C-alpha cells in the first residue's frame, strides 16, 4: 500500500521529466525527419505529418543529402573541416603537452610568472585579436589558407590546453622522475616514455574538446577564411546556405545534419571523455 | 648542452635541470604563438581603439576616447548593449535553473542516464547547426497556408494567428534567440550541478526528511545551500560565455529586427563599415566586461578546489 502510494505520488515527477525531455528532443527530431523528406512534402506539410504514414518509405529519400553534398558543396566543406580540424587539434595539443611538461617539471627563471601569464590569457576574447591578425595575415598571404587557420586555432587553443595538461602532468608522482634520473634518461626521453603515456586520459579529453571547438567554430573561420569558399568548413557553408536558401528546409536540414554527424558520433562513442572534455573546456575565451 | 637531472632540495620537490636552453625549447613554440595570436594583438587593438581610421585613405589619426563615447550615443550600439543585458539575465537564469531542476529531479528516476544524454546532446553540435534546427521550429507562413514550423503549427492548431517569432521586435524575437542558447547550454549546467548534487551525503537529506521536512524544504534548506558554490561557478561561466555570444544571432537574424549583440556589432563595424577604431573599442569593452566575472570565477573555483 505504501509502495503504491509512493509510485502514484511520483507520477507528476515522471510526467514533468518526460515533457521536458521531449521538448529538448523535438527540434532535433524535426530536423532529422525533414532531411529525409521530399521537397514537395517539406514545402506543403509539417514534418510531424510523417507519423500518419511512418512506414511509407516511398515518401523518404536520400536525395536531399545527395543534393547538398554534391551540388551545394557540403562534401567539399566536410573535407575542408577535416583538413582544418585535424591539424588544428594535433598541433596545439602537442605544443601544449611540451609546454605543460616544462612548466611542471623543469627549472628555469620566470617559470611561475610565465605560467600565470599563459593562464591569464584565457580572459582575452577572440574579438581582441582579429584586426591586428587580419592585417598581418594579409601581408604574409596567410588569409584564406589552411596553415593560417591552423596557426590561429593553435594560438587560441593554447592557454586552455596548457592549463589543463599542466594540472594533470604536475600531479604525476615525483618518484617516477626520480627513477628516470637514476637511469640517466634525458628530458626528451622522460617526456616521450613517461609523461605522454601516463597522460593519455587527460590528453584524450583535451583532444576531444579542442576537436569539437575547432569543428564547431564559426567565428574564426569567418574571420580568416570568410572570403575563400574553396577552404570553407561546414559551419561556414551551412551559415551561407541559411542566407542563400533560407526557405529550402529540406536542403538546410540535410546540410545541418551533415555538419553535426561527426560530433554526434564522437558523442555517442566516447561519451565519458566527451563530457569530461567539455566540462574542462568551458572556460575557453 | 649538458643534460642532467637533479633533486631540488631547496624547493622541496623534484625538478629536472637540463641546461639553460632546454626548457625554452619546450615552451618556446607555445610562447611564440601565444605572443603572436593573443598578447601582441590585444595591445595593438587597445591602441587602435583610440584612433580613427588609420587603415583607410584620409586617416583620421588619434581621436582619444571618441570611439568609446560613440557607444553611449549611437542607437544601434545601445540596442546591442540592451540585448546583451537581456541575454545575460535571461540566458543565465534559465540555463542555471533548468540545470538545477534536471540535476535534482533526475536523481530520483531510474532512466536518469538517457534523459541526461538527451539534454546534453545539443552541446555536441555547433551553434550554427542549432540555429538551423530552431529557425525551422520558428518558421513562419502567413495565415491560411500550411505551417511547417512546429511552433506556429501549435499556435494555429489552438486557433491562433501565426506569429513571426524572429521578426516581432524587440522582446519576442530576442527571447526566441535566447531560447536557442538555453537549449544548448542547459546540458552543461545540468552535468556540473548533477555531479555536485551526487556528492551531497544522502544521510543529510534523510535526516531532514525524518525530522518531518517536506521535499520542498529539503531542497531549499539542505540542497541549495550546499550547492551554492557550484551554482556560483556555473553562473559566472555562463555569463562569460554569453557576453561573447555571436553565432546564434549571426545565423538566425544577422542582427536584423533589433536583435544585435555586442559581438555582432563589432563584426559589422569591421566588415560592413571598415571602422577598425570603433570595432577595436568594442573588443576592449568586451574584455573589460569579462575580466571581473572571470576573476570572480577563478577565485571561487580555487576556493572550491581547496575544500575538496
Topology:
The complex is a heterodimer of chains A (about 280) and B (about 300).
Chain A: H1 2-9, H2 11-34, H3 39-44, H4 63-71, H5 74-105, H6 111-120, H7 130-140, H8 146-169, H9 174-182, H10 187-198, H11 200-216, H12 219-225, H13 234-244, H14 249-269, H15 271-280
Chain B: E1 4-6, E2 15-17, H1 22-48, H2 66-71, H3 75-106, H4 112-120, H5 127-137, H6 150-157, H7 171-198, H8 202-210, H9 215-243, H10 247-252, H11 262-271, H12 276-307
Antiparallel strand pairs in B: 1-2
Helix pairs in contact in B: 1-12, 3-7, 3-9, 4-7, 7-9, 8-9, 9-12, 11-12
Features:
heterodimer; A: 285 residues; mainly alpha; MetI-like fold; 2 domains; 15 helices; B: 308 residues; two-stranded antiparallel sheet; globular; disordered N terminus
Structure description:
Chain A has 285 residues and is mainly alpha-helical. Chain A has helices at 2-9, 11-34, 39-44, 63-71, 74-105, 111-120, 130-140, 146-169, 174-182, 187-198, 200-216, 219-225, 234-244, 249-269, 271-280. Chain A is 74% helix and 0% strand. With 308 residues, chain B is mostly helical. Chain B has a single domain (74-307), classed as MetI-like fold (Orthogonal Bundle), CATH 1.10.3720.10. In chain B, 67% of the residues lie in helices and 2% in strands. Chain B is built from 12 helices and 2 strands. A two-stranded antiparallel sheet of chain B has the order 1-2. In chain B, a hairpin with an 8-residue loop joins β1 (4-6) and β2 (15-17). In chain B, α1 crosses α12 (276-307), α8 (202-210) crosses α9 and α11 (262-271) packs antiparallel against α12 (276-307). The two termini of chain B are 43 Å apart.
Amino acid at each position: 500500500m505504501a509502495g503504491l502510494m509512493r509510485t502514484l505520488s511520483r507520477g507528476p515527477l515522471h510526467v514533468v521529466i518526460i515533457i521536458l525531455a521531449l521538448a529538448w528532443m523535438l527540434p532535433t527530431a524535426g530536423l532529422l525527419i525533414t532531411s529525409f523528406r521530399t521537397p514537395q512534402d517539406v514545402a506543403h506539410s509539417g514534418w510531424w505529418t510523417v507519423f500518419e504514414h511512418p512506414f511509407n518509405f516511398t515518401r523518404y529519400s536520400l536525395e536531399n543529402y545527395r543534393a547538398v553534398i554534391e551540388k551545394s558543396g557540403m562534401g567539399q566543406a566536410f573535407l575542408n573541416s577535416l583538413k582544418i580540424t585535424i591539424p588544428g587539434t594535433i598541433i596545439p595539443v602537442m605544443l601544449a603537452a611540451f609546454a605543460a611538461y616544462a612548466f611542471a617539471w623543469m627549472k628555469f627563471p620566470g617559470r611561475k610568472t610565465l605560467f600565470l601569464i599563459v593562464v591569464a590569457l584565457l580572459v582575452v576574447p577572440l574579438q581582441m585579436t582579429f584586426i591586428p591578425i587580419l592585417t598581418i595575415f594579409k601581408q604574409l598571404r596567410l588569409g584564406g589558407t589552411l596553415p593560417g587557420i591552423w596557426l590561429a586555432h593553435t594560438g587560441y587553443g593554447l592557454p586552455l590546453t596548457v592549463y589543463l595538461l599542466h594540472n594533470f602532468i604536475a600531479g604525476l608522482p615525483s618518484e617516477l622522475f626520480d627513477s628516470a634520473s637514476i637511469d640517466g634518461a634525458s628530458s626528451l626521453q622522460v617526456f616521450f616514455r613517461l609523461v605522454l603515456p601516463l597522460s593519455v586520459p587527460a590528453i584524450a579529453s583535451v583532444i576531444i574538446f579542442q576537436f569539437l571547438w575547432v569543428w564547431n567554430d564559426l567565428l574564426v573561420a569567418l574571420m580568416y577564411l570568410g572570403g575563400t569558399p574553396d577552404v570553407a568548413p561546414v559551419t561556414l557553408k551551412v551559415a551561407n546556405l541559411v542566407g542563400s536558401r533560407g526557405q529550402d528546409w529540406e536542403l538546410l536540414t540535410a546540410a545541418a545534419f551533415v555538419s553535426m554527424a561527426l560530433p554526434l558520433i564522437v558523442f555517442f562513442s566516447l561519451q565519458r571523455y566527451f563530457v569530461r572534455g567539455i566540462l574542462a573546456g568551458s572556460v575557453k575565451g | 648542452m649538458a643534460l642532467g637531472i637533479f633533486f631540488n632540495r631547496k624547493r622541496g620537490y623534484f625538478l629536472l635541470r637540463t641546461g639553460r636552453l632546454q626548457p625554452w625549447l619546450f615552451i618556446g613554440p607555445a610562447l611564440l604563438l601565444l605572443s603572436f595570436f593573443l598578447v601582441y594583438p590585444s595591445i595593438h587593438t587597445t591602441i587602435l581603439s583610440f584612433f580613427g581610421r588609420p587603415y583607410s585613405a584620409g586617416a583620421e589619426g588619434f581621436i582619444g576616447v571618441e570611439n568609446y563615447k560613440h557607444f553611449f550615443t549611437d542607437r544601434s550600439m545601445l540596442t546591442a548593449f540592451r540585448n546583451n543585458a537581456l541575454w545575460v539575465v535571461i540566458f543565465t537564469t534559465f540555463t542555471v535553473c533548468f540545470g538545477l531542476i534536471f540535476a535534482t529531479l533526475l536523481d530520483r528516476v531510474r532512466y536518469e542516464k538517457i534523459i541526461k544524454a538527451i539534454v546534453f546532446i545539443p552541446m555536441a553540435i555547433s551553434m550554427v547547426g542549432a540555429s538551423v534546427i530552431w529557425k525551422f521550429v520558428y518558421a513562419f507562413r502567413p495565415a491560411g497556408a500550411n505551417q511547417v514550423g512546429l511552433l506556429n503549427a501549435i499556435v494555429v492548431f489552438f486557433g491562433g494567428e501565426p506569429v513571426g517569432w524572429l521578426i516581432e521586435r524587440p522582446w519576442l524575437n530576442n527571447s526566441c534567440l535566447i531560447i536557442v542558447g538555453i537549449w544548448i547550454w542547459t546540458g552543461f549546467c545540468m552535468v556540473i550541478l548533477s555531479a555536485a548534487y551526487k556528492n551531497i551525503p544522502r544521510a543529510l537529506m534523510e535526516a531532514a526528511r525524518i525530522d518531518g521536512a517536506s521535499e520542498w524544504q529539503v531542497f531549499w534548506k539542505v540542497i541549495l545551500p550546499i550547492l551554492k558554490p557550484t551554482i556560483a561557478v556555473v553562473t559566472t561561466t555562463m555569463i562569460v560565455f554569453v557576453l561573447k555570444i555571436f553565432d546564434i544571432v549571426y545565423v538566425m537574424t544577422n542582427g536584423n529586427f533589433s536583435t544585435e549583440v555586442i559581438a555582432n556589432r563589432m563584426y559589422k563595424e569591421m566588415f560592413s563599415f571598415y571602422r577598425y577604431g570603433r570595432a577595436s573599442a568594442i573588443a576592449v569593452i568586451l574584455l573589460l566586461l569579462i575580466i571581473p566575472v572571470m576573476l570572480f570565477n577563478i577565485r571561487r573555483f580555487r576556493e572550491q578546489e581547496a575544500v575538496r
